[in-house]
Amino acid sequence: MSAFGNPPPMLARTHADLHNIRLGIGKLRTVSDRLVGVGPVGIGLDGVLSFVPVVGVVYSAIAAGLLMLEAVRARASSQTLIHMGALLFVDTLLDVPGATPFGILSGLADTVFTGHKWSANLLLKHMDETLYVEGGRDAPGNAGLLADIRSGKEKRRVVFLG
């Protein structure tokens, strides 16, 4: 929260913001791990660039950072952020030459380990399971929702976008 009680400007404040976050996550997922796909198998820039020593690490780290930024903007839970961070750390580590016991096979391991796609899917599922409510907790019309939350009728995670 800023000094005036409003969330920082980068956080989602409307359903339109959440829609744009979803679009960004989907594009990044496709470019990173499914640019070319045949059936259930696909390859993206992360897999291709993993065979180029420095470029692969830089791309993987930037893509991971963008996914984490979108997760923060979508107000993901700390558990989701930690889970995504672990997946993205391993995905990026696979691009670092000599950082894994795989040696030359590290590029192939990174191609198979689609951490960007898994993290994106995890975040999108988390967003689907979250009830986002425009307006603050005290906004008119939210009294019924607050009563449902207190009584336990509302089981989903609730985020007030206000």
Brief synopsis:
By secondary structure, this protein is mainly alpha-helical.
What does the secondary structure layout of this molecule look like, with pairings?
Blueprint: H1 15-33, E1 36-38, E2 41-43, H2 45-49, H3 53-73, H4 78-93, H5 106-112, H6 115-128, E3 130-133, H7 143-151, E4 157-160
Parallel strand pairs: 3-4
Antiparallel strand pairs: 1-2
Helix pairs in contact: 1-3, 1-6, 3-4, 3-6, 4-6
**Largest sheet entry:** 2 strands, antiparallel
Number of helices: 7
Unreliable spans are none
Q: What is the overall pLDDT average? A: 86
Structural class assignment: mainly alpha
Number-wise, the strands total 4
What's the gyration radius in Å? 19 Å
Termini gap: 11 Å
* Strand order in the largest sheet: 1-2
Number of domains: 2
The helix content is 55-70%
Question: What amount of the residues lies in strands?
Answer: 5-15%
| Shape verdict | elongated
Order of helices and strands: HEEHHHHHEHE
